[in-house]
Amino acid sequence: MSGHSHWHSIKYQKALADQKRGKIFSKLSREITIAAKEKGPNPETNPALRVAIERAKKFNMPKANIERAIKRGTGEIKGAQFESVIFEAYGPGGVALIIEGITDNRNRTLSEIKQILAQNNGKLASEGSVKWLFERKGCICIDINSQEEFLKDKETLELKAIEAGAQDLNWIGDILEVYTRPEELEKTKKELEKTGIKIDRTSIDWVAKEKIEVEDTIKEACERLFEDLDENEAVQEIYSNLKQ
Fold first, then answer.
1. Confidence of residue 84 (pLDDT cuts 50, 70, 90)
2. In this structure, what are the phi and psi dihedrals at residue 231, rounded to the nearest 5 degrees?
């Protein structure tokens, strides 16, 4: 079964372990602001905002911070004017990358991303030359270890996910990634929760259609690139077709 690079799913956990809470809040705040700006302040009618708020709550982001971020997006509070950016690139070994960001200065961020890629044997790609290798999908992450005893079975979880409307499934260790159409993400999530399944995280991702195998040295070089990209304040998510 297909699956996306799970770098983005471990990224915030790694940052939290490194006590980068302030940086996490900054990135989450930008995500909430841009979602509110693009589709409005109501999470009931704005799936991207709902996902961003849920993620912020997972990291105990104060309610006041969330509300301020929404108001910045709607213009109720003045501040920097953020916009979404997507960069297509190739990393070491020809690994395809989609880098999502939120910035108040597109040219500055473009220059910084170019520099990070060049320092890590990567390069920017022309628009559309990488994106066709990926599909846009909703993703629901389920940690088997956080489930009740009657759900701590991979086959049981898979069956319930399929019954809830999953398009595709992928295991990374004890984490089950459930893929849906983006517009069906919330519906599938609610169906899973009805069965007693605890959801770890939801997101709308770029999922690689095919994964590529690379040597360990290339994989290590890619991971260094991912870490350097993640250090950039504008970078929100990193997706690749690297097989884990």
1. very high
2. -70, -20
Q: CATH 3.30.70.980 spans which residues of the chain?
A: 83-132+209-240, 135-208
For the chain, first and last CA: distance in Å? 13
Domain 135-208: what homologous superfamily? YebC, transcriptional regulation domain (3.30.70.980)
pLDDT in tens, 40-63: 999 988 988 998 998 899 888 999
Percent residues over pLDDT 70 in the chain: 91
What is the number of other CB atoms lying within 10 angstroms of the CB of residue 14? 12
CATH no. for 83-132+209-240: 3.30.70.980
CA–CA gap between residue 51 and residue 57 (Å, rounded): 10
pTM: 0.81
Q: Rounded CA gap, 117 and 215, in Å? A: 19
- Buried b / exposed e over 32-52, threshold 16 CB at 10 Å, is bbbbbbeeebebeebbbbbbb
What sign for the dihedral angle of Cα 14, 186, 161, 136? negative
CB 89 within 8 A of CB 97: yes
Give the model's pLDDT for residue 6.
46
